[in-house]
């Protein structure tokens, strides 16, 4: 612990460990013992973050996901400085055992490891721990699907919502939402068996069972255990079901699985990149089964929801973003939440490595969004303003004083400076004016925009158009 310079720091750290242990339930305390500070204890960091290292990646997940607030509070109580903890894995740290552990704690911690373990959850159910309702941001685009998903989670197997057929294009949260149903049902009804699979895995397992049956002659045995796997459950979630369209043998098997489960009152959920109406080759009897329940479509989230999604990631990953940065990401990545999430992750990872906060400037740099900016030329801007205000380009560049011409010109000047960062003399040349006139017009518009909502809207619209052009 070389980072702890003196006795006072060492004692403070021990105190922090103690306070934190007292705040946590017994079975989470084991992850606290080996923690180490990643920076001097009493230094206020600029970004308000305090780095804590741990040799246990699973411990980090538990502390980060379940007890972040407790860690923050304990740190504050011990040091009197409020900072947000950020965990890093450091496998060179020696894992320490907790000294006194009661039998109850021991049992608890074993159960905790088993229950909380991502691997355990995944191997039994196929579910990813991240895909919960709590981590799903609901917007107009997904409200209906979300509400149905919630209802199913409270009452699985009810005819009205059985099966649920979730559709929507790639990266909009279908897999997330269907797995959230699985998690919630396990929470509500711990004894129910949930299984998540996708059409391809289902098919591979089936082909494998058929192949082995042929080789070994144990036809019934292999197929039986395959069927058992998918029929001996209370909730079956089959993802990417569009994949089976036209694959006869799989369709047959899905049909049989469906019937067995449905007749036993079990819940079935399908997710598909295409709406059911776009399945072309599926046999009618299977199509009609899919139609027995309800189809819910997820659409592209609007700008506001996309910003909320970014804010949500920022909150859970503990790397804050400003409204401007959220807006930038939401605008740039507008039709695929997976890409939006990827962009946030990439930008925040870079910022965190470089020890800086995210702002519009470095976010565009980290994500190489500047490329697009470079394509903007004075000619583009002129073109857009000319169309928008219905004023000839020639006129904008002339000395004409007609009101609408002057208006179009001032926006053209403003945007050219704002988006291209040209100097006044260069601007003056572009607009055939002297540079004090240009400077005056730019400054005036800038001031006006700050106080005038309508002008802000016009500027935003023009900027959008220029970027698209
Ligand atoms: P799909 O199955 O529709 O292709 P996914 O469910 O795999 O999409 O979602 C892609 C990524 O975007 C996932 O990491 C998921 O957590 C995230 N995501 C999608 N929609 C949302 C949402 N509404 N709120 C939070 N995260 C979302
Ligand atoms: Mg998916």
What does this structure look like?
The chain is α/β, with parallel strands linked by helices and 469 residues long. The protein has four domains: 7-89, GMP Synthetase, Chain A, domain 3 (2-Layer Sandwich), CATH 3.30.300.180; 133-297, 3-Layer(aba) Sandwich (Rossmann fold); 303-372, Helicase, Ruva Protein, domain 3, CATH 1.10.8.60; 378-468, Chromosomal Replication Initiator Protein Dnaa, Chain: A (Orthogonal Bundle). Helix content is 59%, strand content 8%. Helix 11 (248-263) links the parallel strand 6 (235-239) and strand 7. The model has no long low-confidence stretch (mean pLDDT 88). The protein binds adenosine-5'-diphosphate (ADP) and magnesium ion. The site of magnesium ion has 3 residues, from helix 8.
Hetero groups in this structure are: adenosine-5'-diphosphate, magnesium ion
Number of DSSP-assigned strands? 8
The largest sheet is: 5 strands, parallel
pLDDT average, as an integer?
88
The portion of residues forming beta strands comes to: 5-15%
Helix percentage range: 55-70%
CATH topology of the largest domain: Rossmann fold
CATH level 1 class label of the largest domain: Alpha Beta
Give the number of helices: 23
Number of domains: 4
Which architecture name of the largest domain does CATH use?
3-Layer(aba) Sandwich
CATH superfamily of the largest domain: P-loop containing nucleotide triphosphate hydrolases
Structural class: alpha/beta
Distance between the termini: 56 Å
Major β-sheet strand ordering:
5-6-7-4-8
- Which stretches of 5+ consecutive residues score pLDDT under 50? none
